[in-house]
Amino acid sequence: MVYAGGGTALQRALKVDDTPEAMFDFLIRAGSPNPPIDKIQLYCEQSPEHFDWLVAQGVPYKEKFTPAKGLPMGDESLYYSGTEQAWPARDYAAPAPRGHVPGVTGMNGGRTLMEALHGQLRAAGVTLRTRVAMKQLVVESDGRVIGAMVDSPSGRKYLRARRGVILACGGFIHNRQMLVQHAPHLARCSVPWGGAGDQGDGINMGIAVGAASLRMDEGFAVAPIYPPENTISGILVNASGQRFISEDSYHAVIGHRIAYEQQGTAWLITDEGSTYQGVQDNFPLAAQSSSIGGLAEQLSLPRGALQNTVAYYNRYADKREDPMFGKSAEYLRPLQGPPYKAWDISVDRAFFPAHTLGGLATTVNGEVIGSFGELIPGLFAVGRTTAGIPTAPYIASGLSVGDATFFGRRAGRVAVGLAPYAGGGA
User: Fold this and answer.
1) Three-state DSSP state, 109
2) Which range among 261-275, 277-291, 374-388 shows the weakest confidence by mean pLDDT?
3) With 80 as the cut, is the pLDDT of residue 424 above it?
């Protein structure tokens, strides 16, 4: 998934009206405070060109759009991959579908994208070294990063960098010690979601040579309550028996609210029409009753709290209104008709994937910034090794891959353009 917009070729082909300004307003206002404005502005302005570049690499996209919520399971290539249509984001900017996924059936978009990019690597004659673990950056006396020490099957070796070193080592979701230290909210989530190499090595090696780190507490925490979409007609409540978000919000916005703001505890309350049908193994069934009061008692909620929440919700849902959280009218209807069920959406008991978003501070060209604001010569970082465009709450699928590929390209161009290092060293 690549989050792209501002009038990409695919958007134009499907008659989608989008502008860089609308994309910018959404990303700036719907995410966290103090976002990286310079990176977001550049990404929005050059997003159409970046999509063209992906197409030129052989990534296949089909001129098909789906209005369904969630990742397309067909071969559609464009959909609403984030929280653009949910309140309050829809008031910040005109919603537009910006989720660009390769036009293949099933959840195979990532494989398809990577096959295309790996094919370009082979065509360019790039040498890939596997079974090699980078352990330490090597720094010259003038402060320039000139290479790395790596472990390989034949022992520890020094690899000299002619122009620069680019760290693209992922985040640190699989480093339990770092997670507890920097992102304790994510440490409680049941599913550390990321590549096995997301151990924080790139971040730690950068910090070891003086790099600054940003937003290390932030991450992506997702509660996939849909599909199916009928479940969005239910309501999410916290340990006080109160709603805390619009249920049609993007998965990761819901997950963020639960993990960071509700002490990790929440339930989805459904009735006969909004319940999961068939086998449902993402969330355990916590309670079932013929009455809302029965659910509240089984969940040990404060006396009368859930009943008052449902009564208020039903009063306005009957008018297709949600004055508290602005849920879209298409998902609004009163909760009525047993059996009533409570599904446990808590971070430690549900299927609750998470990964990290914090990392090294970088310029728009991927140059690593030191703790005193200076550039560390010869050192670059991209993707989740950096604190890039994605912030918490994570507001749209594809922002991370878009960030990694877009700023990865820029870092590569700048590094290649550097003059070969003429200093000392081995």
Assistant:
1) helix
2) 277-291
3) no
